[in-house]
Design a protein that fits this description.
458 residues, mainly alpha, two-stranded antiparallel sheet, two-stranded antiparallel ribbon, 23 helices, 6 strands, elongated
């Protein structure tokens, strides 16, 4: 039987926060049973319906919808967590893509297919207009090859640096010629006149060998995840001559471990994940299950080893306060914290842990907590004023009268309504403030709770 601390850790990493109801539902069984429950995501998670007329406002609608799915509207928030993983790996950026509708198509693909099959996911993303525009494959033609997408497909998406040669980049680039778009309609277009259909050699295998030319690009993914070989003159000496499917499985396994665990990946877990990926032809759900059921995932090092990303922190604050995302999530502050949905900093996506720990980012985190503190108190000074939190309300009269001479009970009431458990030291800091503050200052306990270290560590 799993101990409660392990279930809470598992939920924080997979469902953003350890909601009390989810903890209670899972704590009586094994870790394996809990992981299976978490992985049982719905087949149709729905999609945002745009109401705004302006493109920028639609982009914000998409972000708010996604946050509300993470916080309130999904029975299995791992679906949204995993979609954000892919958003940071197979990423596109709203500003360059141009329209919220195209970003919605890509994000929905991550949400619907992010726990399906890697091979199918990458193929689907590759010819969506968002990706065609972001990595310039819409400009890739035989008379003027553009290598951006073909290079990043190997370097950043599937294989990693040094596991291919420049000749492989050229071959893959040729295979992807002809896939473009229409800027007027945002529609995908196949332009056969742009396609280079000559035979090529990619990672030791022949591609562009006749057949449907629209499928030549997809062959590159099949080679990488299939029978390709790392060239003997590749710069990554350790992988020379290895099957590319093994290298790809290890590469994505390390990405998953870093995202969910935060620490240096244990070789034994990466090997087990790799073997599972190969056995199941890159099915994502059983692949991730190996990570989440590994004993290494529940060590003290892993439990203490992951700084919450700004998105994770924002979700935790929304859960604690009960506020919905629209009009409450300050996207501009998220940019200052280092992570705003739809706006990855570059094709490498976001880094993790220390990437979000610097003076500027931490100052913005404090500003974000302050913003949430103010929003929970909207109407506090009105007659019958109250503060709305996750599990109910606390009125101004209770803070100023009922708990006036009970500062400790006020702290515990607020923590109960926010449905969070703080460490003894964090709780003691709140108690000290509550005991020493004037009664009219105690509404600041909401803000101080949101500033607690527990909101910065997953």
């Amino acid at each position: 039987m799993a101990v409660q601390a392990d279930i809470e850790h598992l939920l924080r990493r997979t469902e953003f926060v350890a909601r009390p109801a989810r903890v209670a539902a899972l704590v009586g069984g094994t870790i394996a049973a809990a992981v299976d429950d978490i992985l049982a995501v719905p087949a149709n998670p729905g999609s945002v319906t745009f109401t705004a007329g302006e493109n920028w406002e639609r982009g914000m609608e998409l972000s708010y919808y996604w946050f509300d799915r993470m916080v309130f509207d999904s029975t299995r928030p791992l679906q949204e967590k995993m979609s954000f993983f892919w958003h940071g790996l197979l990423c596109s950026e709203f500003g360059k893509v141009g329209t919220a509708e195209l970003m919605r198509e890509q994000i929905d693909t991550f949400r619907f297919d992010g726990l399906g099959n890697l091979r199918l996911l990458v193929k689907k993303i590759s010819t969506q207009v968002a990706m065609l525009r972001y990595l310039d494959n819409n400009q890739n033609r035989r008379s003027s090859p553009n290598q951006n997408f073909a290079r990043e497909l190997m370097e950043l998406f599937l294989l990693g640096v040094g596991n291919y040669t420049e000749a492989d980049v050229e071959a893959a680039t040729a295979a992807w010629t002809g896939h473009t778009d229409d800027w007027e309609t945002d529609a995908y277009i196949w332009n056969v006149g742009w396609h280079d259909a000559n035979l090529k050699t990619l990672l030791g295998r022949t591609i562009n060998n006749g057949g449907d030319p629209t499928l030549h690009g997809y062959e590159t993914i099949d080679v990488i995840l299939g029978n390709g070989i790392v060239p003997v003159d590749a710069t990554n000496v350790a992988n020379r001559g290895r099957d590319t499917r093994l290298v790809a499985a290890e590469f994505i396994s390390r990405k998953m471990w870093t995202f969910f665990a935060g620490t240096s990946p244990p070789a034994s877990v990466i090997a087990a994940m790799r073997d599972n990926a190969i056995t199941n032809d890159f099915a994502i759900k059983p692949w991730l299950r190996v990570l989440l059921t590994s004993t290494e995932f529940y060590t003290a090092e892993v439990k203490q080893g992951l700084v919450r990303s700004p998105v994770d922190m924002m979700v935790a604050m929304l859960v604690a306060t009960g506020l919905r995302a629209t009009d409450n999530v300050p996207i501009w502050l998220m940019e200052g914290m280092g992570q705003a949905p739809l706006f990855p900093p570059n094709v490498s996506g976001w880094k993790h842990n220390a990437y979000f720990v610097n003076a500027s980012a931490m100052a913005q985190r404090a500003s974000c907590a302050q913003s949430f503190g103010w929003r929970t108190m909207d109407g506090y000074w009105d007659p019958g004023g109250l503060i709305q939190l996750a599990a109910g309300t606390i009125t101004r009269n209770e803070i100023e009268v009922t708990y006036r001479n009970q500062p400790d009970q006020l702290v515990d009431r607020i923590l109960t309504l926010m449905q969070i458990t703080l460490s003894p030291s964090s709780r003691e800091a709140l108690l000290t403030f509550s005991r020493n503050a004037q009664w009219w200052e105690r509404n600041q306990l909401i803000l101080l709770t949101l500033l607690a270290p527990e909101f910065h560590v997953a």
